[in-house]
Amino acid sequence: MEAGECSAIGGEGDGIWAKLVPTDAQCSGIDITSGDMVIHSEVTCFSSKKQSWCLIEKVPHSGKATIKNISQGPIIVDEAIVGTEETVNIKYGSEIVSGPHREGHLVFHFKETSFQKQDTKALMIPLDVEHAKCSICLNIWHDVVTVSPCLHNFCNGCFSEWLRRSEKKCRDVVCPQCRATLQSVGRNYFLRNIEEAILQTFPLLRTSNDELALLDNRASVRSNLVLGAQKPSSRNRSSGFSSEESFASGLACPQCGNLIGGFKCNRATAHLQCQACSGMMPSRPDVGIPQQCLGCDRAFCGAYWRAQGLDPGGEYTICSPETFQPASRWTISRVPDTTHEYNRYEQDITEWCIRQMGKTVQATVLEWITKLDNREIDRARLQLKHAEAVTSRTHLCSDCFCKLVNFLLYWFRLSMPRHLLPPDASNREDCWYGYACRTQHRNADHAKKRNHVCRPTRG
Ligand SMILES: [Zn+2]
Ligand SMILES: [Zn+2]
Ligand SMILES: [Zn+2]
Ligand SMILES: [Zn+2]
Ligand SMILES: [Zn+2]
Ligand SMILES: [Zn+2]
């Protein structure tokens, strides 16, 4: 089937109160922006001709709407035929077919869009601003973290500083508010929204930019930190373990109890659990060794233990350095399946282009990493958490390296002049949904017919 195009009279903008959502993913939804709006779109799957075929009108203050058939023939609304110039009620969820038969015509669902917005706005939670203050600095939390088991909340920067001091004194980490011995600390994204909402409502409570910069500078909690020294290994690491068990029994941290590389953990040392091997390592933000991936903020231990001179294969569960290394050190031999959103056809073309140029995937990726370093490419599509900071020297986990490769090879393909593509691929029109097209990986015909290495122009 050819891609259907849908569009509507009337601009986009804030006044969208409902939407016609097509059942065909190829077709984009129509925003209904004014109280009464003529829908002007394609009506069949086969022709690209647009026409005005119905009028949707909001019935004020009733939560209801009507649809008037202004086309030449009948349309179907909720399985009932509606003749020319007839008007019927519709409700949210109603099904509207743009002609007398489902086959060959476009099918839409009528959905409200403002409802959800009103709903969240209407959800008012009484909140005492005093309860949203950090008991260390007495300001509204900034980048709030929550400790367990007592679940008290603090600014990331304030708590990180507290942690650093406890560590210096080799004392158990206790809660600055209630003195409970702490087990872990992590960022709290839910409360962060509340933090922002409060500051929007009461701008005067905002802390000065200098203070915020100081807090950000001190903040060291990125992924979840396990607090306190880890119990020695229970000596059964070779037997199967669930991740929960391993966390509870503590896959031993090599530096708990042993001086390695001039460092030994103390009672207050915060630990990170490696996402690859589940082993523990002390969190040491001040020593300049990467312990967390800049692409996903998750902890990986390979680079840290290499810097401590510890090799995998010994008594402890640790990763080999290859699982967490600078982007330029990763090797890659073929175009990943994810590069063109599982579109095999584009994947083959990219491989083909690389071969035609007498290069390898590895060389091509390195070449484009250099362009990234030189800030020659727009990073908008780079799906990494700290995309702006990523360079060839950035330590990345394998998942994030793969995302980087996808991004670089996309740009490599965009840079290829059309006439250098294989003959049957050089004259294709762009799919309107571009790289975001959801049909490209399941419909081989569509993948062949349209170019998908391009930006979406709609949808
Ligand atoms: Zn604070
Ligand atoms: Zn507490
Ligand atoms: Zn340790
Ligand atoms: Zn990562
Ligand atoms: Zn590891
Ligand atoms: Zn497509």
UniProtKB/TrEMBL annotation:
Principal cellular location given in the protein's record: nucleus
Domain RING-type: 134-179
Subcellular location: Nucleus
Single Gene Ontology BP annotation: protein ubiquitination
Gene3D superfamilies tied to this protein: 3.30.40.140, Zinc/RING finger domain, C3HC4 (zinc finger)
Descriptive protein name: RING-type domain-containing protein
Entry superkingdom: Eukaryota
One term under GO cellular component: nucleus
Sorted UniProt keywords: Cell cycle, Metal-binding, Nucleus, Transferase, Ubl conjugation pathway, Zinc, Zinc-finger
Gene Ontology MF terms in the entry: ubiquitin-protein transferase activity; zinc ion binding
UniProt xrefs under InterPro entries: CHFR_Znf-CRD, E3_ubiquitin-ligase_CHFR, Znf_C3HC4_RING-type, Znf_RING, Znf_RING/FYVE/PHD
